[in-house]
Please model this.
Amino acid sequence: MKATQNPPTTAEVTPADLLRMAALYLRRHGWHQGTYYAKNPDTLTPPACAAGAIGIACAGHTVEHFSQLDPDTLADYLGTLGAFVDYLDTTAPVFLIDEGGYLLDEHTSPYSWNDDPARTAEQVITALEAAADEWDSLHITGGEN
Model:
């Protein structure tokens, strides 16, 4: 690179970065259960559930359904939500069992986990941050992706 060239200023945004952004969003704007966002027409930054906060981190605005995302943002959203589910699968597994005792779902639903009546905002924020740390520990070696 020549001295007159400007160095690149952008870096790849990882799922860990987006998980931390979602946690920060919840700290600043509040946490919500039951839907992606609390219905408040007076704000562009409503309280959000974990998945809603991840959507905002990826898209930069509220996202009512993943079909509203462009392909690149959708890939970021699904990858980040997947990293969060992987973390929840190892730390707080939620299994759906039918009446016969058969396993219906082997993965934690971030929606049911978020909406558990005993869940707190701090637990959600802590889980998002811990999932980011786990992603980093699995994907970054020697300071490189």
Summary: The chain has a mean pLDDT of 87. Residues 15-139 form one domain. The chain has one domain: 15-139.
